[in-house]
Amino acid sequence: MTDIYKTPSSSVNIPDFIEDLNAFKRVSVWRMVFLTIVTLGVYPIYWMYTRTQILNSITSQGISSSVIRIALVSGGVYLLSPILGQYLVGHQFAAAMKLFAVASYIVFTLIWLFGLRAEITRIARNQGQSDFHANGVLTYFFQMLYLQYKINQFFDRQENHDR
């Protein structure tokens, strides 16, 4: 007979995160510049989104999905503001909406970008590259191009260390 007052047991599967920058791929920075020009600036957002998905799959901390959503929605509102201003709302409101959308897009994209930078740096240091550093000023100005350069640099250092 079973004890009805016994504490129930269960098996909880907690995922093991393997923090390894090798989950990222080496991509030529020049290729990224080319794709940014060809896609009229859409590729950097795609790059950040896909790298964030990879990062969130290999680390327990990751980047908040709320930051990503707010950045993407505000960017979409900014792009659609001429249409919204012409057909749905007045021109003065559309101008204010456009200003707010571009400001929130810039702020949340920078939060997203610097979150990626912090996690990439932390993981690289945990993988034995204690002197790995991603410069904040260069991250601000060159954004995803600089972060990909640093990821490529991580791979180069790892290859030189393995030899």
From TrEMBL:
DUF4234 domain location: 28-121
Transmembrane domains' residue ranges: 29-49, 70-89, 95-116
Pfam families: DUF4234
Keyword annotations: Membrane, Transmembrane, Transmembrane helix
Superkingdom of the organism of origin: Bacteria
InterPro entries: DUF4234
Protein name: DUF4234 domain-containing protein
Species for this entry: Gynuella sunshinyii YC6258
